[in-house]
Amino acid sequence: MMKKSLIAFAMLLPTLAIAETSIGIVYPLKALQETALVKQRMSALENELGADEAKLQKLGKEVQDLRSKLEKEGMTMSADQQEELRTKGQQKMIEIQSLQRKLQSRAQATEREVMEEMGPKFQEAIEQVAKKQKLDLVLNAQAAVFVGDDAIDVTDAVRDQLNKMK
């Protein structure tokens, strides 16, 4: 009987240790997106790409107009006129795709730059918040299967710490 009690107690030890662990969770993307630096960079990117985005919308409308014209007036047009409209539409679609690739590439480059700069700061901010709040463990909230009521969401604290850092 004594042996069974010791085995049961030994099996409970890890559970007791976990119960004493103070756990925080963080939503990294939210914390980063809400920092002043990231907001500033995204605003600058939007300003930089604004003209290209406007051009993209204009090209999209032109393609729609060409398609509408072809649908409405196609029966009364000559084969050459129809082919000319199709060719213009294809050229504009190629231009749209090129511009979309350019915008996407620039956005991804900015994202990489921000992450390279913010990655080490993010890790440091988490460590500082964990020390201040006496947390034993901080988990990425998206990686957790279940987050109970006892877990502490430190996302806002991490964001605030990042904003304090230079």
TrEMBL record:
Residues 42-69 form a coiled coil. InterPro entries: Chaperone_Skp, Skp_dom_sf. One of its GO terms (cellular component) is cytosol. Gene3D superfamilies: Skp domain. One of its GO terms (biological process) is protein stabilization. Residues 1-19 form the signal peptide. It holds the Pfam family OmpH. One of its GO terms (molecular function) is unfolded protein binding. Keywords: Coiled coil, Signal. It comes from the Bacteria. Belongs to the Skp family. This is OmpH family outer membrane protein. It comes from Alcanivorax profundi.
